[in-house]
Amino acid sequence: MLSVAESAERLGVSPARVRALIKAGQLPARKSGRAWVLREEDVLDRVAAHPRAGRPPAAGRVARGSANRESVEAGAPHGLYRECRALFSHVPTAAMMAQAQSQEEAAFYMAVSDFFLQQRQAQLVKEGVF
């Protein structure tokens, strides 16, 4: 059994939102004294059914950051993948890291490079080379 606060943490919403969901009958709960308690299974089911916290986008309203996504050509993500693979199929050079404009950008370079190196390592292991 979970409290409202514990359920809110797992759902990624506020305790007030959990109480509102209970009141609306969208989240099963029962009273234990003055407090609401929820079954962990019900909370996990809600997480599975509604994986993202927050207000759903209203009809006609464009979600933040999605305006560009709709205008992206269908093949653009594949082109991005190929470019990243070509640039980061090796450990980033010191010059590349020095050109990063933020710590976040440098961390991105390392993460993408690590991804492609892990893919190559898995391929070598599969081939019995490594």
What does this structure look like?
This protein is mostly helical. It is built from seven helices and three strands. Strand 2 and strand 3 form a beta hairpin. The longest helix has 24 residues, at about 105-125.
**Share of residues in helices:** 55-70%
How do the strands line up in the largest sheet?
1-3-2
Task: Please tell me the overall pLDDT.
Answer: 79
Query: Which stretches are poorly predicted, pLDDT < 50 over at least 5 residues?
Result: none
Number of helices: 7
Rg over CA atoms, rounded to whole Å, is: 23 Å
User: How would you describe the shape?
Assistant: elongated
Q: How far is the N terminus from the C terminus?
A: 48 Å
User: In percent terms, what proportion of residues is strand?
Assistant: 5-15%
The beta-strand count equals: 3
User: What summary fits the major beta sheet?
Assistant: 3 strands, antiparallel
Order of helices and strands: EHHEEHHHHH
Derived from helix and strand composition plus strand pairing, the structural class reads mainly alpha
Please tag this protein with its features.
130 residues, mainly alpha, three-stranded antiparallel β-sheet, 7 helices, 3 strands, elongated
Compose a concise summary of this entry.
The chain has 130 residues and is mainly alpha-helical. It has helices spanning 4-11, 15-23, 40-49, 67-71, 76-88, 94-99, 103-126, and strands spanning 2-3, 30-32, 35-38. The relative contact order is 0.08.
